[in-house]
Amino acid sequence: MRLGLFSDVHANFEAMMAVADGYTDKNCERYYCLGDVVGYGASPQECSDFVREVAEVTVVGNHDAAVAGLMDYQYYYEAARRALDLHGSWISPENKAWLAKLPYLHALPEWDMQLCHGSPLRVEEFSYIFVVEQARECLQIWDTLPQLTVIGHSHLCKVFELTRDQAIELPADSLTLKPESKYIISAGSVGQPRDFDNRAAYTVFDVESRHFQFHRKPYDIEAAARRIFESDLDDGFGHRLFLGA
């Protein structure tokens, strides 16, 4: 069985549709979203509708939690707060209720894996893992970690391999999991990549062969940015789509 794993859609419908198209020839049987369906972009309603329909499970991201009223986001910078306020007023009551019920962590013990938005060490705090030092902190929960933890949040494609006493970073391309190691893999971002590659990111995991593959897909950035420019959102959220930053 092959799983489609994607994260950080961030209300970018054009990118989400490009990823959906990218999955058409990947033979995935189930899809999972690692959180942050909303935030930043101009299409929170459309993206929420789509992810609700397609994803077997979606875990809650910090932007989802903010829009759903599950966390205080007053410490976010002004443009991000404004976007969350707008999204809270734009999405339907049904989608807001859906966001409010999303789990912080979803275990898939049949495949020795789990899904969460940020670090599995403190899932409700949405801590980042984008450098090896942050991955190394998870060694303290080595005994309870499944072989594979897939996360989002950083908007970066990252692979960290853990043994009982060390963590190393591997290239985020294609890999087969080693039986003796554990892995924390960040799936990148569908709607707002931050690795200076402006293509939408998505991943595929074959649960039998234990093979994990990263993919990128171009999308209509001009259309996605235009939606932002024509809304009350900060124009910077549109400009950064072109940069992938």
List the helices and strands and how they pair.
Elements: E1 2-6, H1 13-22, E2 30-33, H2 44-54, E3 57-58, H3 62-67, H4 78-90, H5 93-100, E4 105-108, E5 113-116, H6 132-136, E6 148-151, E7 157-162, E8 167-170, E9 174-176, E10 182-187, E11 200-206, E12 211-217, H7 221-229, H8 236-243
Parallel strand pairs: 1-2, 2-3, 5-6, 6-10
Antiparallel strand pairs: 1-11, 4-5, 7-8, 7-10, 9-12, 11-12
What can you see in these coordinates?
- The chain has a single domain (2-243), classed as Purple Acid Phosphatase, chain A, domain 2 (4-Layer Sandwich), CATH 3.60.21.10.
- With 245 residues, the chain is of the alpha/beta class.
- 29% of the residues lie in helices and 23% in strands.
- Helix 7 (221-229) packs antiparallel against helix 8.
- The model has no long low-confidence stretch (mean pLDDT 97).
- A six-stranded mixed β-sheet has the order 3-2-1-11-12-9.
Mean pLDDT equals: 97
Measured as a percent range, the helix fraction is 25-40%
Number of domains: 1
Cα-atom radius of gyration: 17 Å
Class by alpha and beta content: alpha/beta
Q: Unreliable stretches, pLDDT < 50, 5 or more residues?
A: none
